[in-house]
Design goal:
Elements (H helix, E strand, L loop, with lengths): L1 E5 L6 H13 L4 E4 L10 H10 L3 E2 L3 H12 L11 H9 L3 E6 L2 E6 L17 H7 L6 E3 L7 E5 L2 E5 L13 E6 L5 E5 L13
Parallel strand pairs: 1-2, 2-3, 5-6, 6-8
Antiparallel strand pairs: 1-9, 4-5, 7-8, 9-10
Family: Belongs to the metallophosphoesterase superfamily. YfcE family.
Protein name: Phosphoesterase
Keywords: Metal-binding
């Protein structure tokens, strides 16, 4: 099974379409989105519609939470483009975490960290609170977003993969997506600029 990974779209609809086209060309069987569908960009409504129409499995990110909150608060001073009721309802329907077993691999999807943690997982660092939380998880592979940094690392028995950000408008954006082979857990990160592989440090 080839699993396509996207995250941190941030209302960049053009980049989302590019990512979906690349993943289709790479023959993925399923696409998952690891949060932050909206905010920072102009096309949140179209991003939500596209993900919904493509049946992409999504989890909710912190910016998605912000968009829902702003919709209900209706602050007239808020300059962020306001989403419509249908888009907000879609975001509200998304869980912050999902768990699956695909090809015998136990997979957890979250945005920042499983268990509701707010400290990001980095290649060199696994937060102590997350280490404690993961003791109760039956997981082999944890898929995350949030940092905009592609990552494929192992912390103890768990493999953590982050596809980076689909968004490509800011300096910290990686403008990438990723593919994970199941059950081998082989990972490839792909640039949305030219469909070229993005090198990552060897998995240790």
């Amino acid at each position: 099974m080839r699993l396509g990974l996207i995250s941190d779209i941030h209302a960049d609809h053009r980049a989302l379409l590019r990512a979906l086209a690349i993943l289709e060309d790479h023959g993925v069987d399923k696409v998952v989105c690891l949060g932050d569908l909206v905010e920072k960009g102009p096309d949140g409504e179209r991003v939500v519609d596209t993900l919904h129409n493509h049946l992409v499995v999504c989890v909710r990110g912190n910016h998605d939470d912000n968009a829902v909150r702003r919709y209900h608060e209706r602050d007239p001073a808020d300059q962020e483009p306001r989403l419509g009721a249908d888009a907000v309802a879609f975001l509200e329907s998304l869980p912050h975490e999902r768990a699956y077993c695909w090809e015998g691999v136990h997979v957890v999807l979250s945005h920042i960290a499983p268990g509701g943690g707010d400290e990001p997982v980095l290649p060199e660092q696994l937060p102590k609170r997350l280490k404690r939380a993961l003791r109760g998880y039956d997981a082999d592979l944890v898929l995350l977003g949030h940092t905009h940094r592609p990552m494929n690392v192992r912390h103890g028995p768990l493999q953590f993969v982050n596809p980076g950000s689909v968004a490509g408008t800011r300096l910290r954006d990686s403008h990438t997506c990723a593919i994970v082979e199941l059950p081998s857990l082989a990972v490839e990160v792909v640039s949305l600029h030219d469909d070229s592989p993005v090198p990552l440090p060897p998995l240790r």
